[in-house]
Write the structure tokens for this entry.
Amino acid sequence: MGKMSRDKGKRGERELAARLREYGYDARRSVQYCGANGDADVIGLPGIHIECKRTERLSLYDAMAQAKADARKGEMPVVMHRKNNSEWLVIQPLADWIEMYKEVK
């Protein structure tokens, strides 16, 4: 991965953390080194493993596979994605979404 891509990823992580703070969560970019430690890209939502993708073209299933592989036991894997001039989206497995929906219904 080139320096420009890494820098855009870091900016995306900071941007997402700022948006989550606007919602009242103590979110921040995690300290990670090439994903080797398995930490989420952004932390501050307990029980949620966030894989942040700030790219024009997302390999959806690859991103979700990475989130699932890196999530710790008990964490719900999600991919949060935004491309230029678009809103942030949250992508998660249907079974996890249903579990959340049951809680609010």
In short: Strands lie at 28-29, 42-43, 48-53, 76-81, 89-91. The two ends are 43 Å apart (CA to CA). Helices lie at 3-22, 60-70, 94-104.
